[in-house]
Write a structure and sequence with these properties.
This protein is of the alpha/beta class. It contains 9 helices and 7 strands; from the N terminus they run H-E-E-H-E-H-H-E-H-H-E-H-E-H-H-E. It has helices spanning 24-37, 72-82, 94-100, 102-110, 151-154, 160-165, 181-199, 214-217, 221-235; strands at 44-47, 63-64, 87-93, 116-121, 170-177, 204-210, 239-243. Helix 1 packs across helix 7 (181-199) and helix 3 (94-100) crosses helix 4 (102-110). It starts with 23 loop residues before the first helix and ends in a 7-residue tail after the last strand.
Length: 250
């Protein structure tokens, strides 16, 4: 029998605490695979601020450094500057990167900091009870918008990737998803390219990943995966948003 997949070397044998259908575990596996395939284990550091991914150090067998909520880009900047040969990435949710961490992320991108951000967008505050996030869709029900997000009151969903693509220091920005095998493969390809952008010292890179949150969306895992295609991608279209690397992904 041909073996198609095996457990990544740098994914710990620890049961995930994520809800069934959550996309975090998929992205964790992708990162673990890339650490092995790109031979980065002894020179990579991950920075997960508070959020559902705050326990990422339980699962990824690499050096990890916690940061305060929203301060991932700031901590990553300091770490990269004092250790320029280290590959530094943040792993942030939408409530973190697109809310309390907006300023840190935007200015790090504008300065062209040689860091990589993996941005998980599930359109809701997942860990703290399903409140409205900056990326919550108009009309979407959350615990703080029980009748649906009203743009005249709560504003419109923020497209952080498009905003970050506008500043000169960002080099590679792509939005992907993990709701199908094809999209998972595209996500891995994008994160690989983002890491390579940093290795080549080209500038700031970010991959936004549309990820299902069945618990807070009050859907089954299958319904949440379908909802990404039917609803979420209309607000957050998939694809390369900015690529000034001059290279194609492998």
């Amino acid at each position: 029998m041909k073996q198609v997949y095996s457990r990544p070397k740098y994914l710990k044998r620890t049961p995930f605490h994520y809800c069934p259908g959550c996309g975090h575990s998929i992205v964790h596996r992708i990162i673990a695979e890339l650490v092995e395939e790109m031979d980065m284990h002894d020179r990579i550091v991950g920075i997960p601020p508070p959020g559902c991914s705050v326990f990422a150090y339980h699962y990824l067998d690499i050096d990890m450094a916690e940061s305060a909520h929203g301060r991932g880009a700031a901590v990553a900047t300091g770490m990269k500057r004092v250790s320029p040969d280290t590959i530094v990435f943040t792993y942030q949710g939408d409530g973190d990167l697109a809310a309390i961490g907006t300023a840190e992320t935007l200015h790090a991108a504008n300065r062209g900091e040689l860091i990589t951000a993996v941005f998980i967008n599930n359109a809701v505050y997942g860990m703290t009870g399903g409140q409205m996030a900056p990326t919550t869709l108009a009309g979407m029900n959350t615990t703080t918008t029980p009748y649906g997000r009203e743009p005249r009151l709560e504003g419109y969903p923020i497209r952080m990737s498009e905003i970050l693509a506008m500043v000169k220091g960002s080099v590679y920005i792509e939005r992907t998803a993990v709701n199908s095998p094809a999209n998972i493969r595209k996500t891995k390809k994008a994160i690989r390219k983002a890491f390579q952008t940093q290795i080549d010292r080209l500038g700031f890179s970010l991959v936004e990943v549309l990820s299902p949150c069945p618990t807070n969306w009050r859907m089954t895992p299958l319904e949440s995966w379908q909802w990404i295609d039917k609803v979420m991608t209309a607000e957050f279209p998939l694809g390369v948003i900015k690529d000034e690397t001059g290279k194609d992904a492998d």
